[in-house]
């Protein structure tokens, strides 16, 4: 079982999630202003944290480490939606101040996460694999995926949401193993 040693006691990944998921959700919601995007941000934040847990040099700073991941993840999600003309990011003042501090390391982490997701896509049901692969590897919008797969946009959103949950479950199973 993966554990993080904090000053008070060892903290495993599940305990870390229980302790910080509400905080991460609130940070995400303040940036995205959307319940579903905030939930997606929480899932992606903890997926990134699990993958990069070995890079946490000082476990006593886990809260600030997770909040930094959450902010960058939420901004990336909002930026992706903005690229797809689903929302207008320029109205978010926080985006500009945080974007200025984005580092090359964050970009590398994002690419690593994308690669890791691609590796685990094969564990998903075929219908979810199609949607996830098009969204992650080809960065297609829901409408583009719907058109390509001859589905409704709401079906694409549902399959993508389920695929994300399934990927999160796969990560959780690896934690428990």
TrEMBL record:
It comes from the Bacteria. This is RNA polymerase sigma factor. It comes from Rossellomorea vietnamensis.
């Amino acid at each position: 079982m993966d554990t993080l040693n904090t000053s008070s006691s060892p903290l495993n990944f599940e305990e870390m999630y229980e302790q910080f998921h509400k905080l991460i959700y609130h940070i995400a919601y303040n940036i995205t202003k959307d319940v579903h995007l905030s939930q997606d941000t929480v899932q992606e934040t903890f997926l990134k944290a699990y993958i990069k847990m070995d890079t946490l040099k000082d476990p006593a700073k886990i809260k600030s480490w997770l909040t930094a991941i959450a902010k960058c993840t939420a901004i990336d999600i909002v930026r992706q939606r903005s690229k797809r003309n689903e929302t207008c990011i320029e109205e978010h003042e926080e985006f500009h101040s945080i974007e200025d501090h984005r580092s090359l390391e964050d970009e590398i982490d994002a690419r690593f996460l994308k690669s890791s997701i691609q590796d685990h896509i094969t564990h998903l049901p075929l219908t979810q694999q199609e949607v996830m692969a098009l969204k992650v590897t080809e960065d297609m919008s829901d409408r583009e995926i719907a058109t390509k797969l001859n589905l409704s946009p709401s079906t694409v959103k549902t399959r993508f949401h389920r695929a994300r949950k399934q990927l999160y479950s796969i990560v959780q199973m690896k934690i428990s193993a």
